[in-house]
Design a protein that fits this description.
This is Response regulator transcription factor. It comes from Streptomyces javensis. Keywords: DNA-binding, Phosphoprotein, Transcription, Transcription regulation. This protein is of the alpha/beta class. The protein has a seven-stranded mixed sheet, with helices on both faces. The longest helix has 15 residues. It starts with a strand and ends in a 7-residue tail after the last helix. About 5% of the residues have low confidence.
Length: about 230
Amino acid sequence: MSQTVPSSPSSPSSPSSAAAIRLLLCDDHAVVRAGLRALLASTDGIEVVGEAGSGEEALAMATRLRPDVVLMDLQLGEGMDGVTATRRLVSGDPPAPRVLVLTMFDTDADITRAIEAGATGYLLKAERPEELFAAIRDAASGRTALSAPVADRVLARMRSPRPGLSERERDILRQLARGLGNREIARALFISEATVKTHLGRIYGKLGVETRAGAVAVATERRLLPDG
């Protein structure tokens, strides 16, 4: 259930009231949202204007509340995930909010999908409060904010990019996107199931994923799927 948080009254002479960053929380766990709201109340210059429990709620509330920054979890239960919500938030009518991902997941696939969707920053929930506050301020100013482990992974990938997919691997990805199993893919492409499994292992490695769904999701984000 989403919740709009009323603004706290402040003195007109308060130095933080005029420049307060308007923040919208999006996490499907009410306890997490409550903890974040209490934590953010301990610092000046950041005002939590609303809470959303799903991607759909975040979109609706962002339209109504016009936050400067949306603090976005990636896994939001059923419905729209955090990556899709991020893409739609940053591509909406201006002024679009900045999106700062706050998640427990630090896989290459998650990081890549979030950044390619338009996230300004990517933080892990294990960060210290001071790092979170600084990241929110950076995001509001349009500066990139990455947790140290995330930055290390991004740099490592830039230094050693994964090889591109072969034409056969793209063919198999297209069959995966159609929902076919290994046997059906083998029949469709006139190859053995063992060959399909070998190609799948290479595809997973190149895309930095561990599942069929993850491979399709990353391939879609990077526009790697062939037409048709």
